[in-house]
Amino acid sequence: MRQQHALIPTLRTVGEAEMISHQLLLRAGFIRQLAAGIYNYLPLGKRVLNKVEQIVREEMDEIGGQELLMPALNPAELWEESGRYETYGPDLVRLQDRHERSFILGPTHEETVTDIVRNEINSYKKLPATLYQIQTKFRDERRPRSGLLRGREFLMKDAYSFHADRDSLDATYEDMYRAYTNIFTRLGMDFRAVEADSGAIGGKGTHEFMALSSAGEDYVAICESCDYSANIEMAEVVGKFQVSSVEGVAFEKVATPGKGSIQEVADFLEINPSQLVKSLLFMVDEKPVLVLVRGDHEVNDVKIKNFLDATMVGLADGATVRRVTGTTPGYVGPVSLQEKVMILADQAIQGLSDMVVGANEKDTHLLHVQAGRDFDVDHYVDLRNIQEGDACPRCGGVIKLVKGIEIGHIFKLGTKYSDAMKAKFLDQNGKEKSVIMGCYGIGISRAMASVVEQHHDENGIVWPVSIAPFHVHLIAVNMKDEAQREAAEKLYQELRSMKIEVLFDDRFERAGVKFKDADLLGIPVRVVVGSKAECGVVEMKARRTGHSEEVSLSEIRNLVPEWLEKADQK
Hints:
Elements: H1 20-27, E1 31-35, E2 38-41, H2 43-62, E3 66-67, E4 73-75, H3 76-82, H4 84-87, E5 93-96, E6 102-105, H5 110-120, E7 129-138, E8 153-163, H6 166-186, E9 191-195, E10 205-212, E11 218-223, E12 229-231, E13 252-255, H7 262-269, E14 277-284, E15 287-294, H8 301-307, E16 313-315, H9 318-325, E17 342-346, E18 355-358, E19 364-369, E20 379-381, E21 399-414, H10 416-421, E22 424-426, E23 432-434, E24 436-443, H11 444-454, E25 456-457, E26 460-461, E27 472-476, H12 482-497, E28 502-505, H13 511-521, E29 525-529, E30 537-542, E31 548-552, H14 556-566
Parallel strand pairs: 3-7, 15-17, 17-20, 27-28, 27-29
Antiparallel strand pairs: 1-2, 4-6, 5-6, 7-8, 8-24, 9-10, 10-21, 11-12, 11-21, 13-19, 14-15, 14-16, 18-19, 21-24, 22-23, 25-26, 29-30, 30-31
Helix pairs in contact: 1-11, 2-6, 2-11
């Protein structure tokens, strides 16, 4: 491609973009924002997306995936069948047509693909089957401010597998795990596959693939001694806690005027936050549940949801808190509640023998509280977020926390959707059974941005060869110089004849502008035709390392493939 007439509108600065990938993709002319969380992909951006898609297709096809394409516009009744129309939440984009029929713009396609399978597959002889698509998805994100990392419209690969038995699902799950590992390795990413929660999609077995990056919104727990890794929502906290004695001083009230937070109370009473108990009232499927954790720990609502096998978990509103406890948040405690509710306590509470808790009375706390004497706990269970320094649940080593960007997610759905939507098949004995399902997603556009988060420097993007928009950036320093222009034109045609993708900077611009743009665009190998062109000499430069050499024009045919093979090495 010749750069003079290419749509590559580079910018020196951008406005309010926060993430480095957002800044660089805007500055380098790969994307342009149309509205909050909605982007145009300009020609360079589309070339990168195409290459990500191709890698995904190759790995999906390798494990027997069959590509199809489903509509983005889905009738609401499919989602009503599955139960997700009401439970998915405000991220679901809902609309009506002119006949007032309800539709949604698909954020994912479990319902649609299940509808296909229940109509087309009715025998075990047609199972297993894996179907996938690469398609635009829609989610009405509350704060779409991270560029392609969190958009309202985005490109995704979603795959769905269908099975007659669990062993078949397990085998496909392992195939997908391997395929995802291959995909993200080929994309040049530093990633981890971590144990995760299934969220609104459902299912029990699941892994997230996380690109490690300081720009990540999620924390990943990684063991320093073994290969254990888990999303912080799912990381198990292990520890031995001796049940505290119920003997001791009777509890007493103490005034804590204006001290509502854990740290404020701890400072006021001159105690460590670990001696306090944080009492939080949750609504779990519309029923109030009081959850207790140590003051220096954070409640993990996913663990509450999973322990109680709940659908919806969230903090209770102020009116509910007052009805159950008689007070406002900040002074809630487990002693003398106004309504009897289930009390769940984190396992670390078992090790506290002299607690400080809210008194269910404004500006008041209780000292010397004992579980088992002053209140009863229904269940002790792991309910908190893992922290750095905690023990690895697998080997006992030390846990560290790193940030990550979710780029892929694989689930064992079981029969969640097939039961709800009556997707049945006849087994070998002619007995009707529900199809067993798995689903597997990759954020294509998110992967593109995640690569930039991991592959950039102070001058711009540094694309891995596998998805770079072009392999070679050919720059004629001075297009007005006949020797340079002729040498560059000859090189351009020669490299193209070798099937090497070339962006030829044939613009009548200053050399400094061309070099700055080249750094910004991040194409792996640069060939600069300058003042020594008439002597048959050009410069080659590796974008990743900055290493450069002067070489003979006659050597280019052999050197470019060699440099491309090494372009990703640091």
